[in-house]
Design a protein that fits this description.
The protein is α+β, with helices and mostly antiparallel strands. The chain has 2 domains: about 120 residues, no CATH class; about 80 residues, TolA/TonB C-terminal domain, CATH 3.30.2420. Helices cover about 40% and strands about 15% of the residues. The strands form 2 sheets. It has a 3-stranded antiparallel beta sheet. It has a two-stranded antiparallel ribbon with strand order 3-4. A hairpin with a 5-residue loop joins strand 1 and strand 2. The protein is globular and about 45 Å long. The protein starts with a helix and ends in a 7-residue tail after the last helix. About 5% of the residues have low confidence.
Length: about 230
Amino acid sequence: MIAFLLLLLACWLEAAADDFPCPDEQSRQLLAKIRELNRVHPLGKATSGYARVIEQASKRAMDDLPLRSACRSLATRTFRTNCAAYGYECPSPGALLMEWPAQINDWIPELKANVPALGSCPDAYIRTDPKLPVLRAKPAVPREVIDEKITGWAILALDVDEYGKVVNAQVTSSTSSQFTAPALEAARKFRYEQELVGNRFVAAKSVSATIHFSYWLLAEAAGCSISRE
């Protein structure tokens, strides 16, 4: 009986993937190009390459993950290069980009004004959550979201207790109401590094968190074989 049910599930996934256009070689090549550009220094030698990727990825829904990666890389590297001019104390050269505080969020309008390619980037592809979880849960994608190919994001406010567990979650904005339930379910499974103040751990209120429902996430849920390499 179990073997029969597994066979039915496999057939359903195969059929779902057949109906859902999986990310193709062009999408994978765009991601590979971004990884290549991230290794190019100084930034001036890579800016035009990021711009071409953003222009190309903006034309197809299935390329929203490469688009977000290119927007994020270009904006973050631009901010890092110009952080002193923006009045921000620049981090040490060895600091990881994802460890930065979220001052970049305050400069999104200026970044877009100074870097034309970023004009095609949604703010949500540039902004950084001030406190990053050490454990993230992937949201479950509702069947109707897959069928309708609805992509976008949800931004949440989370209350985190002194142990780093999410004790309350609320969606503050989203591009689709259908993201609310799966975003809340995933966010409640997030875990954060405990925050030490003085000699004790403390809770944190209204921690901002962004959950993206990319085309690639939908494709994986539809049964596509996903590899970002």
